[in-house]
């Protein structure tokens, strides 16, 4: 009795497995795709997802876009892997595309890429409400965080070691990992600035010996003072609350959302606020981009609409600003809107 | 031959010297006994402490998840009077029946009407109080009853995420002041958030739902089970019952044991290279997730299956063969039914591991924002553990409780899956 039952059970399973195989043979393949796919920065992710949601809300027949948060660098690799349904249409980037990345794009046939700046983000430094109320400069941060400031191994343990005006509080910084665009911005906007300000030999190195410049200016120390907190910025906020001496590095939107729990740390006397980041007074502000493959505009339904929706929402009082985006100056908004309207492709000569 | 082995013949009639019984009362003996008992007690205490510690961890986990997540199933609503008659929305009643109803109402400016009603009822920033999905609630009500368009009606609509969090006692100071004001007016109510169980991912914490990820997990698990179970069981049967014992089968056995110990991320890389790279299957699809997880689950099922088949007494096989059963009949009528409970236990362990797995799925792109539940095996989808991971990274505070609520759903899914397996196991269980 049970024997027959078991036989049926196994047969059923086998049939199911076969059915699954047939299904995979029919449905798979890299032929066509009718939903938008986007990859890239975790900083731009919340904004692109919001636009995607609006796209679906406005048109019930639209397929829901698929948006992955991979980090800018990993996203560029996926984006540049080729043209066609198997490759993403949009890359969210929290920094500009590098010339080397464009080269790998072009090598795989991705020539016509539209570069659209959607807004600005600031990398904010923050401490707990009951923290020591730090006042830092890029030079302080460079001397505290670089692996070898001035060519010597970094031995600073307390903030007073890097600047006698600062309190004798242990240096402890929670920040993003090396694959993150936020980390690139930290290196470029803060550490390089501090490096070149404190060491006059650094600036010429950038052109004569980029590797030496990197080692001197942007390599972050690995002796436990800078704690790599992963891509999870909420975790950094929690760590700051439990450790009032620590300083956290994350995107401005997290500071905005948690302003009851953490305070922004002023850099060169400028506090991270919407106004200071928007007018570039705060040193940690950086542009946010999306990159779109022109060849996909007609092939993927809804892609043009998505771009139009982005343009309609990135204004000063738009919904994206409520989500934590900082609107770009009106001139840049107009330029980006023109790129969308005329489908202007990026000139690779402007990339670094 | 030595003398000692030869039984000695008593040479005299004297009684052999009797062994003096152990004197348990001496000081030395007493202290030895005390030490023995003490070590016995210590061991028992250590064992009990280990059990209590693990129970305490489990209780803490369940308590913290339920206490944080329970509010995720509840939403705060505000009573909003909307005068639809005065708004005079340009909608033809005929269009409210078909598929175009959503589009018609959105095009007629229903969202603006609802925002306007909120500003009228709650002051200048009134529309900030409402969730992005508030107007959709009004829309669905109108679709269900078009006559609402001719009336002034009070709708209970969900509030925005900051207000919702504040009403649950964890919000910012500004939001809590607003909540106190609304409470004084008596317009706040609470209710079960049905949308959480039926909707998919969203960027607004008040509109998110777990159904998209749940369905993704379900589809992925179905593919995994349908592939891993039959292939695993057949491999185990062949290796135990038919395979000759030689170096090849030894090699296969070692490989399977090794495969069961391979870290799951490796299977993700394999899936990425083989299913996405070589076969060109769609990214983020449950079919690829299922295939990848099946690779991971199969060795566990094979190992458990072989052990279960091994433990079926050979006498049963001999008896069946003896009365004339063919080898296939022996396997399917006798060995497999008797081994099934053990095989199912192995399958549960493998499937439970697959259900909680994130690492290989990240590699094949199942870590994505998808605003609609998947409708088939090739549709982009995400799974429960990845959804939990994604929500834990969200900026908005409203996602904290949603993350815990999603964990509760995952645990319930796991319990249900194990429950089914235990039921099946008991149904096939045979004792001898």
Automatic annotation (TrEMBL), chain A:
Signal peptide range equals: 1-19
Q: Pinpoint the PBP domain residues.
A: 29-308
Q: Name one Pfam family in it.
A: PBP_like_2
Say which domain of life the source belongs to: Bacteria
Name the UniProt key words of this record, in alphabetical order. Signal
Provide the protein name. Answer: Phosphate ABC transporter substrate-binding protein
TrEMBL record, chain B:
Q: Which residues form the ABC transmembrane type-1 domain?
A: 214-421
**Domain of life of the organism encoding this protein:** Bacteria
**GO CC terms:** plasma membrane
State the Gene Ontology BP annotations. phosphate ion transmembrane transport
Which keywords accompany this UniProt record? Cell membrane, Membrane, Transmembrane, Transmembrane helix, Transport
One Gene Ontology molecular-function label:
phosphate transmembrane transporter activity
- Give TM segment ranges: 43-63, 218-239, 259-281, 287-309, 330-352, 405-424
Record's InterPro entries? DUF3333 (IPR024573), MetI-like (IPR000515), MetI-like_sf (IPR035906), Phosphate_PstA (IPR005672)
Major place of residence: membrane
Q: How does it sit in the membrane?
A: Multi-pass membrane protein
Compartment list: Cell inner membrane; Cell membrane
Instruction: Write out the similarity annotation.
Output: Belongs to the binding-protein-dependent transport system permease family. CysTW subfamily.
> Which PANTHER family does the protein's record reference?
PHOSPHATE TRANSPORT SYSTEM PERMEASE PROTEIN PSTA, PHOSPHATE TRANSPORT SYSTEM PERMEASE PROTEIN PSTA-RELATED
Official protein name in the record: Phosphate transport system permease protein PstA
**Provenance organism:** Sphingomonas aurantiaca
């Amino acid at each position: 009795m049970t024997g027959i039952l078991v036989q049926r059970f196994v047969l059923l399973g086998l049939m199911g497995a076969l059915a699954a195989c047939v299904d995979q043979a029919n449905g798979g393949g890299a032929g066509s795709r009718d939903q938008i796919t986007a990859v890239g920065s975790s900083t731009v992710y919340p904004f692109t997802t919001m636009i995607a949601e609006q796209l679906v809300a406005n048109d019930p027949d639209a397929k829901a876009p698929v948006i992955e948060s991979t980090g800018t660098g990993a996203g560029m690799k996926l984006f540049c892997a080729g043209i066609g349904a198997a490759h993403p249409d949009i890359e969210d980037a929290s920094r500009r595309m590098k010339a080397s990345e464009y080269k790998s794009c072009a090598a795989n046939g991705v020539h016509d890429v539209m570069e659209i700046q959607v807004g600005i983000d600031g990398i904010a430094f923050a401490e707990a409400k009951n923290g020591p109320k730090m006042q830092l400069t890029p030079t302080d941060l460079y001397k505290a965080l670089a692996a070898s400031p001035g060519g010597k191994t970094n031995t600073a343990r307390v903030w007073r070691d890097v600047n006698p005006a600062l309190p004798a509080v242990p240096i402890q910084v929670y920040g993003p990992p090396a694959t993150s665009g936020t980390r690139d911005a930290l290196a470029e906007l803060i550490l390089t600035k501090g490096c070149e300000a404190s060491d006059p030999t650094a600036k010429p190195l950038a052109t004569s010996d980029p590797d030496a410049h990197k080692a001197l200016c942007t390599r972050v120390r690995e002796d436990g003072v800078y704690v790599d907190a992963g891509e999870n910025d909420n975790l950094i906020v929690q760590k700051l609350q439990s450790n009032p001496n620590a300083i956290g590095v994350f995107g401005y939107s997290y500071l905005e959302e948690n302003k009851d729990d953490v305070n922004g740390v002023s850099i060169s006397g400028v506090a991270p606020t919407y106004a200071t980041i928007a007018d570039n007074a705060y040193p940690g502000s950086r542009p946010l981009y999306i990159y779109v493959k022109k060849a996909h505009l007609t092939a993927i339904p809804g892609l043009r609409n998505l771009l139009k929706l982005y343009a309609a929402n990135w204004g000063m009082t738009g919904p994206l600003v409520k989500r934590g985006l900082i609107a770009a100056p009106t001139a840049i908004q107009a330029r980006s809107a023109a790129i969308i309207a005329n489908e202007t492709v990026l000139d690779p000569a402007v990339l670094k | 031959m030595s003398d000692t082995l030869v039984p000695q013949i008593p040479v005299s009639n004297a009684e052999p010297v009797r062994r003096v019984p152990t004197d348990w009362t001496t000081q030395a003996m007493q202290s030895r006994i005390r030490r023995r008992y003490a070590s016995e007690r210590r061991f028992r205490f250590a064992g009990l402490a280990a059990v209590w510690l693990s129970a305490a961890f489990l209780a803490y986990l369940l308590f913290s998840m339920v206490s944080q997540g329970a509010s995720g199933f509840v939403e705060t609503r505000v009573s909003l009077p909307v005068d639809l008659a005065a708004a005079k929305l340009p909608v033809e009643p005929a269009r409210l029946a078909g598929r175009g109803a959503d589009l018609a109402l959105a095009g007629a400016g229903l969202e603006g009407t609802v925002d306007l009603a909120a500003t009228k009822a709650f002051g200048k920033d009134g529309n900030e109080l409402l969730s992005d999905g508030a107007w959709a609630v009004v829309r669905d009500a109108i679709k269900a009853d078009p006559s609402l368009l001719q009336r002034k009606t009070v709708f209970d609509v969900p509030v925005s995420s900051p207000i919702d969090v504040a009403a649950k006692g964890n919000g910012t100071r500004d939001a809590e002041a607003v909540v106190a004001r609304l409470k004084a007016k008596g317009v706040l109510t609470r209710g079960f958030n049905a949308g959480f169980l039926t909707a998919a991912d969203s960027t607004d914490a008040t509109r998110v739902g777990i159904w998209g990820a749940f369905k993704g997990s379900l589809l992925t698990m179905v593919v995994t089970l349908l592939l891993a179970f039959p292939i695993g069981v057949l491999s185990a049967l062949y290796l135990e019952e038919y395979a000759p014992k030689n170096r090849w089968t030894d090699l296969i056995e070692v490989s399977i044991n090794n495969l069961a110990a391979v870290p799951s991320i490796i299977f993700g890389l394999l899936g990425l290279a083989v299913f996405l790279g070589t076969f060109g299957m769609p990214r983020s699809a449950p079919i690829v997730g299922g295939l990848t997880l099946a690779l991971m689950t199969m060795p566990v099922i094979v190992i458990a299956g072989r052990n279960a088949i091994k433990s079926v007494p050979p006498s049963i096989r001999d008896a069946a063969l003896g009365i004339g059963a063919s080898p296939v009949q022996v396997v399917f009528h006798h060995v497999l039914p008797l081994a099934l409970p053990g095989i199912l236990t192995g399958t549960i362990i493998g499937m439970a591991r697959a259900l909680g797995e994130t690492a290989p799925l990240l590699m094949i792109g199942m870590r994505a924002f998808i605003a609609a539940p998947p409708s088939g095996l090739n549709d982009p989808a995400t799974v429960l553990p990845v959804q939990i991971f994604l929500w834990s990274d969200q900026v908005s505070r409203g996602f904290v409780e949603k993350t815990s609520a999603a964990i509760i759903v995952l645990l319930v899914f796991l319990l249900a899956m194990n429950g089914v397996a235990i039921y099946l196991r008991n149904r096939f269980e045979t004792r001898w």
